Amino acid sequence: AQKITQTQPGMFVQEKEAVTLDCTYDTSDPSYGLFWYKQPSSGEMIFLIYQGSYDQQNATEGRYSLNFQKARKSANLVISASQLGDSAMYFCAMRSGHLGGYNKLIFGAGTRLAVHP
Amino acid sequence: DTAVSQTPKYLVTQMGNDKSIKCEQNLGHDTMYWYKQDSKKFLKIMFSYNNKELIINETVPNRFSPKSPDKAHLNLHINSLELGDSAVYFCASSPGQGAHNEQFFGPGTRLTVL
Asked: What pLDDT, in 10s, does the model give residues A3-48?
């Protein structure tokens, strides 16, 4: 079955430090996409970063990088140089082809990140 | 230049009423979605449409009826609202159905059923 697991309900980090948010996934499909979204307290869903299952290199977008370990089925988000504005809920999500799953994102339960000054 | 817009942003109504949420995207995308986020912040797909055709109905009660008049619009009509329907409903769109296609989300509609 397709599943996304985020084991950290809450995390905190000091401003300017790096933080890693964990995500593991399960799918039997060789072709899939992994996504991270940020949801601040205002409620909107903001796309952060994408990693394809066939990508050879880890994705990076500014201060965000994705630590993709395919054999371990993990796709952890690394935020470098944390800022107060990074305080938000972070969701890991997956699209895979299994059972037509390309047509939906499957989300993890989310991790609430608090950045302390 | 809002990419995916939803109206209304907030909706408060009585149990048993019928209500609609509208969604429009100006990105030229083929695929649109409705997601529900419950009080514990869990997000789950409800419906997926591709070129106005229903692709996914994720065991949603038939009180929920999506309507796609054209590729740019996907509206959600809910009949006989129940307390458990209280949630945030997100519309989203993507260029296509491939695994690599990012989904762009609307701002959400917070529905409260009293």
From this structure: 999 999 999 999 999 999 999 999 888 888 999 999 999 999 999 9
Q: How far apart are CA B24 and CA B105, in angstroms?
A: 11
Q: Do A91 and B43 touch (CB under 8 A)?
A: yes
User: Counting every residue, how long is chain A?
Assistant: 117
Q: Do A45 and B44 touch (CB under 8 A)?
A: no
CB atoms within 10 A of CB B68: 18
Among candidates A39, A50, A104 on the partner chain, residue whose Cβ is nearest the Cβ of B45: A104
CB contact under 8 A, A53 and B99: yes
Instruction: Report pLDDT for A96.
Output: 76
Collapse the DSSP code of A99 into the 3-class scheme (helix H, G, I; strand E, B; otherwise coil) and give the result: helix
What is the secondary structure of A46-71 as a DSSP string?
EEEEEEETT-SS--EETTEEEEEETT
CB contact under 8 A, A96 and B103: no
- Asked if residue A108 has pLDDT above 90, the reply is yes
Q: Select the residue of B58, B97, B102 nearest A102 (Cβ to Cβ).
A: B97
> What does the mean pLDDT of chain A come to?
93
